[in-house]
Amino acid sequence: AGERARGRRLFQASLKLDPDDHNSLISLGALACSEGRPREALSLYDRAGKALLAKDALADWAGARALALERLGRAAEAKKQVAAILSYPGLPAARRKEFSAYFSRLDKSA
């Protein structure tokens, strides 16, 4: 329990410096979940997802992964990857336009 409490304090201190630090949010979520607080964990994971989208990191990851799937001849999987990112309401408008165009292109090739 001592190590968990120490970890929690460190992650919380990190969030005071950067409230959108997705690594700290995910780590705190994992701690909350392992300690029987799944609602709190889900809230922290949602914050981490929003932080990643705000930094375009998640969209970059999803786009890169979809491109690799497409080049492997796995267009249907690439399309699912792009659909998943498009389903997120917090996706910035410019990225939504970009991913929508990619989805349309995948739709034609699948």
Question: Would you spell out the secondary-structure blueprint of this structure?
Answer:
Blueprint: H1 2-17, H2 22-34, H3 38-54, H4 57-71, H5 75-86, H6 93-109
Helix pairs in contact: 1-2, 2-3, 4-5, 5-6
| Poorly predicted runs of 5 or more residues | none
Total DSSP helices: 6
SS strand fraction: under 5%
Topology, number of strands: 0
Helix content: over 70%
Q: Which descriptor suits the 3D outline? A: elongated
Output the radius of gyration.
Answer: 17 Å
Quote the average pLDDT: 89
The major β-sheet equals: none
Tell me the span between the first and last alpha carbons: 51 Å
Describe this structure in words.
The protein has 110 residues and is an all-alpha fold. Helices cover 82% and strands 0% of the residues. The protein has six helices and no strands. Helix 1 runs antiparallel to helix 2, helix 4 runs antiparallel to helix 5 and helix 5 runs antiparallel to helix 6.
List keywords for this structure.
110 residues, single chain, 0% strand, mainly alpha
